[in-house]
Write a sequence for this structure.
């Protein structure tokens, strides 16, 4: 029964991923401006040279043919040449990906560590000062434009107080040997405490900026589901059993209340992935998000296309994994 | 005569709402003697569940105990510090709730849910490694006692893997796992179908005999009380209107509400009686007039009923809150 | 309206939203200066209360010497216009699609729900950025880029509500007396799903305003010299060390408007949601 449900969900992934690919392909194929001309711009290329490149890039073929080629290549991680870097798109993206993953993971951790305890406390002390503060805080959290809040944080902590670095992911002097590309992991692997500290200091403000809206939403979801759960008979029964308050809240209540939080956290990864572009731009973070924005301005469409597809596929998969996690957490769905 | 196991005197519980103070329990006094089964009867909103939530120390804001006393084994429970109350709950006084479907935590195995009570209260369990093993053994014993087959193999199951009747048994096993002196069974049968109802009541009765504990059976069903309870107290609008030995109360009710209840339900021992529902509705518990609370619905109302009516004894072991209590009908 | 927004805070928020709307509507009369007028002598001039400030330019000037207050006032037009128009278009499309999917079921539902699932596969901002990259910047393109995905939100709400409403007695009664599908949807189902749709729409306006500002901040939205809050923040980024006011005030305007909308709509939701009346 369980594996059937799993298989159904896996099968559901196929049309969604296919649809996403179609949209990404159309998005970029209908782009005004000819990639071949862009690539050969400033080189005084003759029309023949342009035509020959167009042929090499397959631009002279029909849309359906190009789509089949695109999908065929995409499946192999082949996205053509980055027009700007003159290197394979996949290689350029792979280089920038660890920084983005590191930032997103840090933001996710920040959001969860803020949201869950605050949501629980707010629900338990419903109507109290903490509850009101948390509610006001979460309204601010969803209303703050991230790009502006990031600038304010920079101004306060990096420029005025000089506590934290202004930009980038690490200072040159602390650069750990690159093994995985993840600075935090590389620092630990190399046993470089200075690198770790430096990397974390760079990570702090961007992660907070990126994670704050998510934290605000998750806090509200956790609070609401906690309130709902605390009303349930099984909480009264747990109290009647003479269990300690901590056990009742942390085990009996939270294990049920976290189910909606997991689902919403997965949905909100979308805002995390999109927020990457903004936050990386503000903090000069050497990740994929900034690369995408820069690529748009130099009309480096193959890279934008690949990145948008990567983001969408990631998002779909994150939601799939969250679905699975939900099943693990909720024994009623299991069996 | 020895002191009763549980003694509630003039208990008052009120809930603050936007509309005003709801006096859900207004001067309830009753005793539960060692080894007896006391039935508590009343419609929903009569205060029967709130009274015993008070005994369990589970009245939460906006509710508050306004006054009165609850003594268990001679010890005052009103104002008892939360830690001491916690040790009492589940060990000396246990409670089962109406609906086992919603009272067992869906996210935890039944094993966790029974073991945690034993481990929280099991001062007599050995320490160290043997502790968990001993607790497991007791859990399995209790589950077997309540009639859950292959108990040891079911510890890892989740509540949804149990049938309705088995869930009810599981809840009873959890409540009884520390062998409490008093079991408060809140509407143990309402959520069940008729055949399982009888099984569950028989189970509670037989375990009461085995373990020698006292039972408070909260119900709206006088038929259940007639079958299983030694004594009965009838609640109406936050007050006890009549109490006494079950057989006497049922054959000779002295409060018109009790009489009305009896006419409104079939009682196994008096199946020949025709059924008449009580006219009217339970009064709003905010700003009640001082007189008898049943007055607006009472077929025998008279002027004296507009004054406060005391709850008074009129015969050995029997009391009622009615000006006509002395007159048998 | 007073009962819908209990509390002083909610009323204050509603008044703030109203003030922003009026400000945007009457921008030419309210703004002290031409938002596009440059004056290099006033380059990065500080706000009025600071030294070297001039109260004629209360919030100071940007790198081209343009009055920041006037640009914020005109920027409100862009933000509110895009927020309202996108949500309006999205709501109309979403309600129609949601009604059709939820009421007609069958292949109509499968097609619409499939499209919704695919669009939900994109992180919002990524989708909008991808489209803007393709279509190029500009107000109209931004409205399209956001509306292409935004309609999914009301559509899902309406589909769910319609599925529930479909089973209720008044719809069955209408069906029993032989009313057509379109009639039933328009007269029986639609009025009953209106309140959740309105609640969702107000919250979404706030979110769309943030998305618009983000796109403009990235340089993909409204193009210079037109004033948009997002692009104003971006313009000021380079001068943050010397002239903090250039970025700070437009960003604060976004926060104030979005926060006010959120507070007001939260109050509406609390008032409409019976669960909050214990």
């Amino acid at each position: 029964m369980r594996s059937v449900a799993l298989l159904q969900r896996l099968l559901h992934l196929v049309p969604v991923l296919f649809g996403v690919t179609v949209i990404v392909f159309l998005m970029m194929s209908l782009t005004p401006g000819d990639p071949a001309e862009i690539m050969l711009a400033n080189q005084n290329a003759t029309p023949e040279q342009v035509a020959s490149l167009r042929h090499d890039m397959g631009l002279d073929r029909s849309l359906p043919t190009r789509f089949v080629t695109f999908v065929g290549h995409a499946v192999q991680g082949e996205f053509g040449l980055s027009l700007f870097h003159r290197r394979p798109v996949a290689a350029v993206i792979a280089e920038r990906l660890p920084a983005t993953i590191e930032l997103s993971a840090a933001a996710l951790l920040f959001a969860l560590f803020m949201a869950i305890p605050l949501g629980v406390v707010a629900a338990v002390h419903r109507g109290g000062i903490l509850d009101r503060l948390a509610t006001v805080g979460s309204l601010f959290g969803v209303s703050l434009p991230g790009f502006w809040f990031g600038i304010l944080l920079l101004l306060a902590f990096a420029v005025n107080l000089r506590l934290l670095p202004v930009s980038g992911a690490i200072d040159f002097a602390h650069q750990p040997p690159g093994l995985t590309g993840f600075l935090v992991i590389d620092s630990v692997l190399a046993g470089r405490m200075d690198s770790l500290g430096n990397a974390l200091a760079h990570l702090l403000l961007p992660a907070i900026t990126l994670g704050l809206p998510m934290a605000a939403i998750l806090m509200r979801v956790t609070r609401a589901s906690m309130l709902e759960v605390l009303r349930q008979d099984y909480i009264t029964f747990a109290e009647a059993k003479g269990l300690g308050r901590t056990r009742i809240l942390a085990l009996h209540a939270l294990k049920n209340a976290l189910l909606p939080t997991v689902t919403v956290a997965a949905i909100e990864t979308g805002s995390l992935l999109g927020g990457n572009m903004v936050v990386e731009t503000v903090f000069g973070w050497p990740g994929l998000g900034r690369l995408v924005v820069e690529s748009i301005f130099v009309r480096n469409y193959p890279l934008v296309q690949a990145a948008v597809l990567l983001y969408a596929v990631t998002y779909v998969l994150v939601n799939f994994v969250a679905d699975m996690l939900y099943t693990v957490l909720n024994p009623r769905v299991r069996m | 005569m020895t002191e009763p196991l549980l003694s509630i005197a003039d208990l008052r519980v009120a809930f603050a709402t936007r509309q005003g103070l709801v006096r859900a329990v207004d001067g309830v006094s009753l005793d539960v003697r060692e080894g007896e089964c006391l039935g508590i009867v009343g419609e929903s909103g009569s205060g029967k569940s709130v009274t015993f939530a008070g005994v369990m120390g589970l009245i939460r804001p906006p509710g508050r105990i306004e006054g009165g006393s609850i003594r268990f084994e001679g010890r005052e429970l009103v104002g008892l510090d939360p830690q001491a109350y916690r040790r009492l709950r589940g060990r000396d006084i246990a409670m089962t709730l109406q609906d086992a479907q919603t009272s067992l935590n869906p996210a935890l195995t039944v094993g966790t849910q029974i073991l945690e009570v034993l481990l929280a209260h099991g001062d007599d369990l050995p320490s160290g490694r043997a502790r968990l093993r001993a607790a497991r053994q007791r859990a399995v014993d209790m589950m077997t006692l309540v009639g859950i087959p292959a108990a040891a193999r079911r510890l890892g199951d989740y509540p949804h893997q149990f049938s309705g009747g088995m869930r009810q048994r599981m809840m009873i096993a959890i409540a009884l796992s520390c062998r409490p002196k008093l079991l408060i069974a809140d509407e143990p049968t309402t959520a069940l179908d008729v055949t399982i109802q009888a099984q569950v009541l028989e189970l509670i009765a037989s375990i009461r005999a085995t373990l020698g504990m006292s039972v408070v059976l909260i119900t709206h069903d006088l038929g259940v009380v007639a079958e299983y309870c030694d004594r009965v107290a009838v609640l109406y609008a936050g007050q006890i209107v009549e109490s006494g030995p079950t057989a006497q109360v049922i054959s000779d009710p002295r409060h018109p509400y009790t009489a009305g209840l009896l006419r409104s339900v079939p009682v196994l021992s008096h199946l020949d009686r025709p059924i008449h529902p009580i006219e009217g509705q339970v009064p709003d518990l905010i700003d009640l007039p001082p007189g008898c609370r049943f007055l607006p619905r009472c077929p025998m109302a008279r002027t004296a009923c507009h004054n406060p009516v005391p709850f008074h004894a009129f015969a050995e072991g029997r009391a009622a809150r009615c000006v006509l209590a002395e007159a048998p009908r | 309206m007073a009962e819908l927004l209990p509390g002083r805070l909610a009323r204050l928020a509603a008044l703030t939203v109203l003030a922003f709307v009026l400000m945007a509507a009457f921008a030419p009369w309210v703004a002290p200066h031409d938002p596009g007028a440059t004056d290099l002598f006033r380059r990065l001039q500080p706000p009025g209360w600071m030294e070297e400030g001039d109260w004629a330019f209360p919030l100071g000037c940007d790198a081209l010497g343009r009055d920041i207050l006037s640009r914020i006032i005109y920027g409100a037009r862009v933000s509110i216009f895009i927020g309202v128009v996108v949500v309006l278009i999205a709501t109309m499309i979403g309600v129609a699609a949601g009604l059709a999917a939820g009421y007609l079921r069958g292949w109509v539902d499968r097609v619409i729900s499939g499209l919704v699932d695919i669009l939900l596969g994109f992180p919002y901002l990524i989708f909008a950025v991808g489209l803007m990259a393709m279509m190029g910047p500009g107000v109209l393109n931004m409205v399209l880029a956001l509306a292409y995905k935004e309609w999914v939100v009301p559509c899902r709400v309406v589909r769910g509500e319609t599925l529930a409403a479909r089973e209720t007695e008044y719809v069955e009664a209408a069906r029993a007396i032989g009313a057509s599908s379109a009639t039933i949807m328009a007269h029986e189902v639609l009025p009953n799903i209106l309140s959740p749709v309105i609640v969702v729409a107000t919250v979404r306006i706030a979110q769309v305003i943030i998305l618009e500002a983000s796109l403009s901040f990235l340089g993909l939205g409204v193009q210079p010299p037109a004033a948009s809050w997002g692009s104003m923040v971006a313009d000021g980024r380079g001068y943050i060390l010397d002239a903090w006011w250039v970025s700070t005030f437009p960003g604060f305007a976004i926060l104030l408007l979005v926060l006010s909308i959120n507070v007001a709509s939260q109050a509406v939701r609390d008032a409409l949601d019976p669960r909050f009346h214990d």
